[in-house]
Task: structure prediction
Amino acid sequence: MATNADKKLVRSKSGLRIVATSEDGRSPFELYEPPWVPDKECHECMKCSTRFDFMKRRHHCRRCGKCFCDKCCTIKIALPRMCFVDPVRVCDTCAAVTRKENEFFDKHLKTLTNGADFFLSGSTIEENNEELFFCKISQDQRTLQFEGEHRKHEPVELSKVDSVQILTSSADDQALTLEEASPIAIGLSIKYKDRQSDQQFLRMSITNLPNKKASQLWTAAMQKGARMLYESKSSETT
Ligand SMILES: [Zn+2]
Ligand SMILES: [Zn+2]
Result:
């Protein structure tokens, strides 16, 4: 998925993939291919319990690696998160998850790389509600970048993000219709490790913005992205 790094073609039993040549080029949203449940450990479909025999063949889901009958593992779908070139066979559960993820890649990731305005404050930068920062995810998906009018802020490596918290306001001082009564995002708070591996936090606020729309969309997209970042991180350690 990395767009700027060198890439190579690799073939596994799941299919053909285009991956970065080095760890440094990997997208932090990427998932590793799961190991397949070995045939000898799997005598029946892991969903409907149909016994496998010479007529009932096993199929492995490319996303979870589990073993299913033909009926429970029919869908072929694009799986960019694992860098497959062609659509691959997945189970019903993984098909639903993958559709959501693909919506992130097709839509929300573009919002994040297009960028939006925020006010910054945190452990590395003092609050200043006069100065806007234009914040975006880099084209190679690896860093969160900040362009201030006067100041600079070191980019945040997305693989070093520990948590993303959406800050909300119940806005109970405003007259609200019923539909609007849900909490309103007023920004986000990011915990991450800097280049020296020191823990830092950054608050990206939209409270005082004259035009909030783009920044609210960006915040919502980042909330979706954060979930995928956590999942990618845990897939690395297992
Ligand atoms: Zn089945
Ligand atoms: Zn699956």
